[in-house]
Amino acid sequence: MVKKIFLYVLLAVVSIVGIGFPIVKNPVNWYEYPLIPGLEENAKIIFFHVPTSWLTVIAFFMSTYFSIKYLRKKNIIDDAKAYTSAQLGMIFCILATVTGAVWAKFAWGSFWSWDPRQTSIFAILLIYGALFALRSAIEDEQKRATLSAVYSSIAFVTVPFFIFIMPRIMKGLHPGSADDSTAGPLVNFKMNGNMQVVFYLSLLGFTLLYAWMWDIGYRSYLLKEKIEKSEKKD
Amino acid sequence: MFKSMSALFLKDIKSELRTRYSINSLAMFIIVTISVILFSVGNEKLTPFMAGGMFWVIVFFTAMSGLSRAFVSEEERGTTMTLQLIANPDTILGGKMLYNMVLIFSMNIVTFLLYTAVFDSFIIKNPDIFFLVFSLGNIGMAVSSTIIAAIISKAGSKGTLYPVLSFPILLPLMLMLIDLTKLCMDGTTFADTQIEIFFLLCYDVLMMTASFLLFDFIWKD
Amino acid sequence: MDKIHYSLQLQDVTKIYSRRTIFKNINAGFHSNGIYGIAGSNGTGKSTLVKAIANIISPTSGKVHHQKNNVMIEEQHLHNEVGFLSPYFVFYEEFSAEENIDIFLKIRGIEKNSGLIDTLFDRLVLNKRRGDAVKTYSSGMKQRLKLIFALSHTPSLLILDEPTSNLDDAGKEQFYGIIKEYADKSVILVASNEKNDLALCSSVLNLEEYK
């Protein structure tokens, strides 16, 4: 209970502070954000866009981790964990794509421009989509678990190519890309103290949210399976 | 081990020559796809980059229409158990990969020749580099599509599932191939492309390793 | 030729399909050549058990140990030690009977023993039709061909799942004759409900006891 209240308060504070505090040229007061050239008022979306993208990646790794664990131990609980993580990953992936597209419209002039990271997140979206399509096509529980675990593992092999190859092929627009003149992670260079605090609080809040949803998610999935099985028997 | 693989490969070739199940339809598929592109382009002249990209689009869809047969046909006729009884999983995956490689090579050479004949703007200035890229690309495609074919054959061989599952896995390969083809059309040097060619090789090796590691799980019920 | 000593040990073999227990905790050993039966009414998992023994499916828990001359056989090589006859087995129908057998031996990487195969075709009265495509075969003829397939690579463990289904009386007698001949050369498991099939066996494992 305390955990839930803490999480609720944390996310509420992040949302209010993230959106509410003004951006000014030369921040004097503690509640003011600095003006980042090229981002201006758009900068605030960073509190939501980066955490969702971060969780997309975390959920993907977690899903692969539990898939491999399932293949080794054949414990159906690991499959439930992998599946739930993939579901959450899909939600965060959509959120990251939407917030990213909105931001891109104002910062770069169009919703979509096939920047390396946009391409990569699109690929993750496709992988999740394919995974769910595969799962819904298989009736048998063990077969479904095994085949989707194999597919996740194969999909994971493509990750290094997105990291290393995309930036060579496409022009990067994200801060920190190879040909970005301002180079270096945005976080360290241009954020002032209070902005960093809100940013990291938001990252923490979203990560806790993910952990909580994942915990409930996989347990309810297992219960659902159990109920369906007992109904079948009767 | 390799002898067994090639025996399995020869069995598939012999069976294909006797039933003509995929060869005819694949040949028609290539002709139909190129015609569709020809009609849709009309009298417009394709820019070289578009021509290069479009080539791999044809290759992708031809692969998607034909390569799943390797495992799906065994599952459909019920001969999966037959294979399980006469060979270990590594032999079977190796044999099927070999078969798909030969299939995709012959398919793509035909596509390439037809495509070059039909589209004037598709001119490769570095045939030697392109041949290397083309070969590595074909191998990668054969490897990935073989393991995905194994997955869908066990998933009740849902036809539409094949491109859906294959595309994300083939996407990095396709992007590299399209980019390298563009470079070869512009005229490039080996030094400029060697890193990407190296990544192409990495893709082939990594996918092959992952396939052999994971195939056991798919193959045994 | 030295006599091959094959031994098969089942240790706590359990199979569960979608939370439905087929059989559980089967412990059994087959350590000397001879014919052993596996019985049980329909749906008790005879076919499932023999598939698990032949390493076509993996048991949910438990292990099957194969030993040849007291050396453990690795999973990679097991398929060449096992001869398997099953109602679920399917031939490549576009090839002739002889081509099927030849292809299988080539994939196994085993030299063809022409003498053995000629004798088998002869004894099972398939000699005249051995060049015809399997799709023209009747179900009884396919059953005979399956026995040739199971014996063609001289396995030391022979698994026969419902060996005499689809056979006429003459066919059954031919089968029994061949099976008896192999009894002192190999371990033979017969999964069946036919009284006559089980009469060949020196002992019978009843799956009803492992629910």
Write up what this structure looks like.
The complex is a heterotrimer of chains A (234), B (221) and C (211). Chain A is mainly alpha-helical and 234 residues long. Chain A is 74% helix and 2% strand. Chain A has 2 domains: 32 residues; 185 residues. In chain A, strands 1-2 form a two-stranded parallel sheet. Chain B is mainly alpha-helical and 221 residues long. Chain B has one domain. In chain B, helix 2 runs parallel beside helix 6. The longest helix of chain C has 14 residues. Chain C has a single domain, classed as P-loop containing nucleotide triphosphate hydrolases (Rossmann fold, 3-Layer(aba) Sandwich), CATH 3.40.50.300. The mean pLDDT of chain C is 90. Chains in contact: A-B, A-C, B-C. The interface between A and C is small, with 4 and 3 residues.
What is the percentage of strand-forming residues of chain A? Answer: under 5%
Going by helix content, strand content and strand pairing, the class of chain A is mainly alpha
Distance between the termini of chain A: 37 Å
Regions with little confidence, pLDDT below 50 for 5+ residues of chain B = none
What is the chains' assembly state? heterotrimer
The largest pleated sheet of chain B is described as: none
Number of helices of chain B: 9
Mean pLDDT of chain B: 90
Dominant shape of chain A = globular
The low-confidence runs of chain A, each spanning 5 or more residues with pLDDT under 50, are 179-185
**Helix/strand class of chain B:** mainly alpha
> What portion of the residues of chain B fall into strands of 2 or more residues?
under 5%
Biggest beta sheet summary of chain A: 2 strands, parallel
